[in-house]
Design goal:
The protein is α+β, with helices and mostly antiparallel strands. It has 2 helices and 4 strands, in the order αββαββ. The protein has a single domain (2-117), classed as Ribosomal protein S6/Translation elongation factor EF1B (Alpha-Beta Plaits). 12% of the residues are buried.
Length: 139
């Protein structure tokens, strides 16, 4: 019985990670389109065992291949993703001039932080306990 419960929980975590990856891809594609950034690929790399997580946030990584794009478009894209509600940041950025020397191309690794779903409900006060008795300061 406990094994089935644990298997079910694991499936939920994988589904949540996949949903986060899909959301991140959709947002990055939309922002690239809005900023007129040309890209060749967007992929979610496999999660490594050293991926940073804490009790409140889960990180989702995305690799973006940038085709020849103007500097202004690239800066607009980076500013827009940094200001998004997904808390996206650039972890790695590799840029070189294109063969013509007028635009930039390369790759970037983007990381978004998603708030973890809490498995613990809101805190409750036991009946008969005065709320002021919960204070840690003494009068």
């Amino acid at each position: 019985m406990k094994l089935e419960k644990l298997k079910g929980e694991g499936t939920g975590v994988l589904a949540q990670e996949q949903a986060q990856g899909n959301l991140l891809i959709q947002r990055i594609q939309a922002q690239a389109r809005d900023s007129k950034v040309n890209y060749s690929q967007i992929r979610v790399p496999p999660r490594s065992s050293s991926a940073k997580t804490d009790e409140f946030f889960e990180e989702q990584t995305l690799d973006l291949g940038v085709n020849p794009t103007g500097a202004k478009e690239l800066v607009d894209f980076l500013v827009a993703i940094g200001n998004s509600d997904l808390m996206v940041r650039v972890k790695e950025l590799n840029l070189n001039p294109d063969p013509g020397g007028f635009k930039l191309m390369g790759s970037m690794r983007l990381v978004a932080s998603f708030q973890k779903k809490s498995s613990v409900g809101p805190a409750t006060v036991k009946p008969g306990v005065r709320p002021d008795a919960l204070s840690s300061t003494k009068p």
